[in-house]
# Entry
Amino acid sequence: MSADYQVHGSVAVITLNNPPVNGLGLATRSAAVQGVQAAESDPAVKAIVLTGAGKAFSGGADIREFNSPKALTEPTLHSLIRVVENASKPVVAAIHSVAMGGGLELALGCHYRVALPGAQIALPEVKLGLIPGAGGTQRLPRLLGLEKALGMIVGGSPILSEKLAGSLLFDEVFSAGTELLPAAIAFADKVAAARPLPKVRDRAVKHPDAAGFLASARAQVDGAAGPFPAPRACVEAVAASVTADSFEDGLRFERERFIQLTATSESKALRHAFFAERSAGKVPDVPADTPLRAIATAAVVGAGTMGAGIAMNFANAGIPVTILEMKQDALDNGLAAIRMVYQSGVRKGKLAADQLEQRMAMIKGTLSYDAIAQADIVVEAVFEDMGVKELVFRELDKVMKPGAILATNTSTLDVNRIAAFTGRAQDVIGLHFFSPAHVMKLLEIVRGAQTGNDVLATALVLSKKLKKTGVVSGVCDGFIGNRMLEQYLRQAVFLLEEGALPEQVDRAIETFGFAMGPFRMSDLAGNDIGWQIRKRRAIESPGFTYSKLPDLLCEQGRFGQKTGAGWYDYRAGERKAVTSEAVNDMVVRYSADIGVTRRVVADEEIVERLVYALVNEGAKIIEEGIALRASDVDMVYLSGYGFPLHRGGPMFYADSVGLPQVLSAVERFAQGRQGEAWQPAPLLARLAPLGQGFNG
# Structure
């Protein structure tokens, strides 16, 4: 059973009990129906309270059942709601903490709804590429009105229950501190004899100009929905609450659209991302009950752009942080930059003025290692050079208190070598933030060979507190994200050698859905960063081939936006990339210099070479155990590298295309110019003939 049944006097209480959020899977639906039937057959029961155990009323349908037989096995959610709605005795939904998706739709099917303040109320299906599928688009407008209901359904974001007090959605929102169950039972006793029983379906949707409002809503959604069909479907389903001949017709319209959307590639990608984010925090050999280290204070070494951004993450999370610099002017500049970011937030209305000062008060500066010695965690954010890292970590090893976590923000360097600079390798971990660190959601958590399980578990919990998506990576050059990116960028520049120009490459991949093409991205990040990596590579891996074009660019001082010139030109004070004829001429001349006859490169080839370069390297990373699972690779690219969300990440996209087709393309590219960069990953070569995918 996943719902409990008890009788309190003349009131039956059905408690959904399916941790962690009382998802409405088949077993829970069945138990809830049995509870209503038991209450109906008991003459001593005069009313029914439906509530949830633990931390939720209900978080909604079990989306793992979508596109599976269980979703259609009776009782479906529709059937459960029908049983509740048609009960001969009043059913009161007693809501606390969370009522979302199918959970809210179940509550809408009840005759009455009461709630504690602070409960999150939402129909978030649009965020999974869907619409509410169990009557939400038809019932909510009847209680909240057309405009407010449509806003909730298209936006998908939760609203606190107290903000909906006074609406028809809730018959009562209890005061803070009320014990829910006794209050709900008392309410049920009060309405036990009331007849007829109120049904949301019997209400009409009222609006002075429904047609005009819906036309405006369609125009707004069409302009903002991008590649996703669900927002427009939300509008059409809500419109049916007004235009359908009957409530049942509206339900049928909603259900048809819901089923259509479950089969779309966009919804499948969003659901994959939903599960991928939750899986990323699970490490097979680190038990859920692993003891954690307390993180009450933090320190950051380095007040540059990255260090300042990392410090802001701690301050934003309410963790006092001290920034260490070697020179006063560098420290002053870093603190001033932080204040400027917060001031910008105030101007944009994202931050209250008093919050600015509160957060600045959480951030201190120092020029002394001794001042950070008692921090629970220190994050090194200095220049990406092993010699510089060594100096910092040897000093941290001397001064930091026992048990402090020593983290490096390196984006490519060997975390095991860095750990070896200390006498406490078990305390060392990689925390690779992405720039701008206070904005970007991804945090690569790099597990060294000797990193303690408690340190890893603490880092995963900390990532959530910092509102980051933490993804665990093993140690290799570039970890997950940058190791794959290197292959992507190599192909981008090889395409220039063969006949493309920067603008065409960027346009093709941005049309595919990337937030930014490789050359605009490089200009934003700084072309000198890649230059330093290639110089290191030339020493460590002299057989690794690169195009010389990026080096020629850097030799001219064209480092990107920060110098006003990179692959593109930039006007003073502007970030808009302007085609550079000088760079285009350099590209064409270089092709001639290396004896390559330029050709027309199709956009389709650009997309395949860039995306499949990611896929092929990602497959190697999975097989080597650097990534724990394919979905972790997808999460890195969705949350840190601008991979299009509606395509689900590189490995999911490869699965959706079909691995045989991907392998065929990789083998074809391996026969072409620079074919040595295209040796098929063994995992890809093994899975493709079996008809399997990276994600199972």
Notes: The mean pLDDT is 96.
